[in-house]
Amino acid sequence: MKISVVAVGQRQPRWADEAVADFLKRFPADFSVILRELKPEPRDGRAPERIRAAEADRLRAALPAGCVAVALDERGRDLTSTAFAGQLGRWRDGGESPAFVIGGPDGLTDDFRRGAQLTLRLSSMTLPHALARLLLVEQLYRAWSILNRHPYHRA
What we know:
It is a single chain. The chain has a single domain (2-147), classed as SPOUT methyltransferase, trefoil knot domain (Alpha/beta knot). It has a five-stranded parallel beta sheet with strand order 2-1-4-3-5. It is an alpha/beta fold. Helix 1 links the parallel strand 1 (2-8) and strand 2. The chain has five helices and five strands; from the N terminus they run βαβαβαβαβα. It is globular and about 50 Å long.
């Protein structure tokens, strides 16, 4: 299974980059998780809607062909870790490759969210991008551990 995390933002705090890298190296080859970072649009006085639209265009272009687009947004579906693992298992068994999308500081456009096959929330609270990225990668690892009965997840 190939999983992509496509995120706007290239400069994360060192602690976040190190923690994400730690989780990414834990995945086996048959459950690969790739992080693709995109440069954010300059915050140069343009309206946030225009900035989000430009970032949405670049996010769409960065998505792997044929992927299942999953938009991360605080208004998305709330899944338990077990339910999330079950969804990943269904995608894996169906030969599908999910791509999780984290927008820039201004979020994702309504159009992008509507075009995604799933909108998912990691928390009801707004999270800083570094923490959202880390939380997503940790939950992907937890989902892998649930699917493979690895002791990392203790329910």
